[in-house]
Specification:
two-stranded parallel sheet; 11 helices; Outer membrane efflux proteins (OEP); 2 domains; alpha+beta
């Protein structure tokens, strides 16, 4: 009844469903998506350098400075013959000037600076996308680990439950043997101690199961108390591809490898941009100006347009130093890429070795369990007939429990190492075969 009530109303949750839920709603992926959108905004900001820049400026000045008054009257279109009088010309009354300026500037050529900024921003956006892909793989791997950890805890609880039932049967068997005068009370007490130990194991496994289920919810980005009925069994998995295939894929698909290549391109772009700073900058500018004695009237307007060129002929060799810096950054990025390639291949080989070892352990533990089951059957029969001591029975029971536990751990390691192998190769997604 307790078992039935614990699963009543729960929905079946397969491993692919758990991964899909995590990919759809995990906070870390929402943060990664926000970073990608931020990188896209940086690209748009860099591209804005190709468009004209339009500025509006409003200012107010008041002065009795003769030069200011003379010039302001001219720009306000309010100058008259009376203003040529020597007295007012030398000692004019204070004058207001409300000035409005609209300035438009268009860069025509800037030594590839804007193009460099745009390319760097685009490469940065791609790097951020790779960061998001790496985050997605981490989320998928985290869900797989916690999902099968919950399955392992559930299987461990069931194994402990079976061990309790077996110990209870052994206790009944020992009491019958004692009642028949074929053993001592010490045998019964030994079985009671063994039963208590198995009950303690069951309690621990039940606690482990509750924690594992909460960890699964956290990995999916769900409330910790949400309940599920896991439907993907903890079973062995066989991979078709060989280890070398994963190494080849890792060299092309790992987010870290791609990011290293992008860092190299950014460094190359930095060299190009530093060299472009030695070239002249050409642009055009147009200005519309309105000057008024009052904010809304008694004024005039004017405009002017022109072109400009700026060429930094000497800056203390700062630009050349930046070129050398960018070149060394590119050299460092190249060496880091080489080191990363070797490290990634090593990770793939270790992941493949872990998977292969776990597969072999499953085969070994299968044989051990069959032997332990047969041994326990024989020992139980011998004990009932008074042909073997209780210590042998307890040893066989313990060996049976250990064999089942080792097999469960081996199955768990197979699934986790398979996912780790796909992650090391950079090909782990929500649709990967290792999730089925």
């Amino acid at each position: 009844m307790i078992a039935a009530s614990s699963v009543f109303g729960q929905t079946a949750l397969s491993l692919p469903d758990a991964v899909a839920a995590a990919l759809a709603g995990h906070p870390s992926l929402a943060a990664a998506s926000a970073r990608v959108r931020g990188a896209e905004a940086r690209v748009d900001a860099a591209r804005g350098g190709w468009l004209p820049h339009l500025n509006y400026q409003e200012s107010w000045q008041r002065s009795n400075n003769p030069v200011f008054v003379f010039g302001a009257l001219l720009t306000q279109h309010q100058f008259s013959e009376a203003n040529f009088a020597i007295g007012p010309l030398n000692r004019p009354d204070a004058l207001n000037n409300f000035q409005s300026l609209v300035t438009a500037t268009q860069t025509v050529y800037d030594g590839r600076q804007i193009r460099t900024q745009v390319k760097t921003a685009e490469l940065g956006k791609t790097m951020t996308s790779e960061e998001k892909r790496a985050a997605e793989m981490n989320v998928v791997a985290g869900v797989v680990r916690t999902y099968f950890a919950a399955e392992l805890a559930r299987s461990g609880w069931e194994t402990a439950q079976e061990a309790v039932k077996s110990a209870e049967a052994d206790l009944e068997r020992a009491q019958n043997v004692f009642a028949a005068g074929m053993s001592t009370e010490a045998d019964v007490l030994s079985i009671r101690v063994h039963l208590a130990a198995m009950q303690e194991q069951r309690i621990r496994r039940e606690s482990d199961l509750q924690v594992a289920l909460a960890a699964l919810n956290e990995a999916m980005g769900k409330p910790l108390d949400e309940t599920h009925q896991l439907s993907t069994p903890l079973a062995a998995l066989s991979l078709v591809e060989a280890g070398g295939d994963f190494e080849t894929k890792a060299a092309a698909e790992r987010p870290e490898v791609r990011q290293a290549g992008l860092a190299m391109q950014i460094a190359e772009t930095g060299v190009s941009g530093a060299k472009g700073a030695l070239l002249p900058r050409v642009g055009v500018r147009a200005v519309f100006e309105a000057d008024r004695q009052r904010f809304v009237n008694r004024g005039g307007a004017n405009w002017f347009a022109g072109a400009f060129m700026e060429w930094n002929l000497f800056d203390g060799n700062s630009n050349r130093a930046r070129i050398r810096e960018a070149s060394e950054t590119m050299a460092a990025a190249r060496k880091q890429q080489e080191q990363l390639d070797r490290g990634v291949r090593l990770q793939v080989r270790k992941a493949w070795a872990d998977y292969h070892s776990a597969r072999q352990r499953v085969d070994v533990t299968d044989a051990v369990i069959r032997a332990a089951e047969e041994s326990l059957r024989i020992v139980k029969n011998r004990y009932e007939n008074g042909l073997t001591p209780v210590t042998e029975l307890l040893r066989s029971e313990t060996a049976m429990l250990e064999a089942r536990t080792r097999r469960l751990n081996a199955l768990y390691d197979v699934r986790i190492s398979a996912v780790g192998l796909y992650q090391a190769a950079g090909i782990l997604t929500g649709d990967s075969d290792v999730l089925k």
